[in-house]
Specification:
By secondary structure, the protein is mainly alpha-helical. The protein is 91% helix and 0% strand. It has two domains: 104 residues; 33 residues.
Length: 138
């Protein structure tokens, strides 16, 4: 029976050593794979960052071009809107002025012009009175 016990795998010292060596090799292979993956991950990450920067630079140019295009279009629309608004404002002023004239209400500029004419006439009249007063005294 001892021959049969010696043939059992549990009792084989070489087999146990081989299993132990295999387990150690598997463990070391796992550590090596982990280290390799860690190194590759760092390089892979750096490569991703580099590609991201390149993509950002390319898209930044496209985006800036689009922004300039939109700003130009907005400027054109603003100019047209301002011109339209100015024309509308002028038309409104003319209509209001016409309506006020028809109602007998004069514009501020008309009243100021009349006030200036009255002041000039008063000055002229005063000058005439002063001259006539001197003529009568003589």
């Amino acid at each position: 029976m001892s021959d049969e016990n010696d043939k059992k795998p549990e009792n084989d010292p070489q087999l146990a050593g081989k299993i132990k060596d295999s387990a150690r090799q598997i463990w070391l292979a796992g550590l090596g794979a982990f280290t390799k993956a860690e190194e590759d991950t760092g390089r892979f990450f750096d490569r991703l960052v580099q590609e991201g920067e390149q993509l950002e630079n390319r898209t930044r140019g496209v985006v800036e071009k689009q922004i300039r295009s939109v700003e130009d279009r907005v400027g054109g629309v603003r100019e047209r809107a301002t011109g339209t608004w100015d024309r509308l404002e002028h038309l409104f002023d003319e209509r209001v002025s016409g309506a006020l004239r028809r109602l007998g209400i004069h514009r501020k500029e008309d009243i100021e012009a009349l006030e200036s004419r009255i002041e000039a006439l008063e000055a002229e009249l005063s000058g005439l009175r002063n001259r006539n007063g001197r003529d009568e005294e003589e």
